[in-house]
Specification:
This protein is an all-alpha fold and 52 residues long. It has three helices and no strands.
C-alpha cells in the first residue's frame, strides 16, 4: 500500500508542476490538494492527531 501511495504522490506532484508551468493555476491547486491528502495518508492515522 505504501508503494501505491508513493506513486500516487509522485503523480500528483508531477501533475502539479506541469499545470503550474502551463499557468493553469486552478487545476494546479487541485493537484496540490491531492498531493497533500496523499502525503497525509502516507503518514498514517497519527498525522491528524499531531496537528491538535
Amino acid at each position: 500500500m505504501t508503494d501505491a501511495l508513493a506513486r500516487q504522490a509522485d503523480e500528483a506532484f508531477g501533475s502539479y508542476l506541469r499545470l503550474l508551468g502551463a499557468r493553469r493555476f486552478h487545476e494546479a491547486a487541485a493537484a496540490l490538494d491531492a498531493l497533500s491528502r496523499t502525503l497525509e495518508e502516507l503518514q498514517g492515522p497519527s498525522a491528524s492527531l499531531d496537528e491538535r
